[in-house]
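Pasting as-is:
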Amino acid sequence: MGNVKEIYISLERTTQMTATHTYPAVVTGPVAWAQRVEAWLDARGRGAWIATMVIAMIVAWPVGLAVLAYMIFGNKFSKGAASSKVRPSRMMATSGNTAFDAYKQDTLHRLQEEQDEFTAFLGRLREAKDKAEFDQFMADRTPKDRDVDASDKDA
C-alpha cells in the first residue's frame, strides 16, 4: 500500500445495477395441461403416443388426425425423440476443471469396463444354463426316443 501515489474520487452519481431473478411465466389452463400430457407421453415413449393416436381416432377422428400430425411434425418418431435418453455429447462435455474431467473420464472408463465384464458374465451364465437344460433334456429322454431318432437318420 505504500506505493499508492494518487487516488481519484468521483463525485458523480452512478447508478448501481443489481441482479434480479427472473422466473418463467407460470402457464395455467389448457396450455399447462397439454404440456403435462406431452411430457407424460414423452416419458413413456412412442408406444404411448401411438396408443393415444389410436384412441383419439376411435373417439373422434379429427382429434386423432391432429395427434398424428403433431407426432409427425413434432418429430416424435425420430431416433432421438426420447427425452429420457442421456445424450453422450452432454455426458462427455468438459466442466473446465481438468482434475475433475480426468476423474470423470477414469470413472466412466472403469464403469464401461465393469459393464462389459458383467455383460460377458451374463452371456456365459446363459450359455451354462442352456447347456445344463439341454444335458438334462438328453438325460431324460427314453431309449425308445433315441431309437426313433436313430431310425429317422437311417431313412
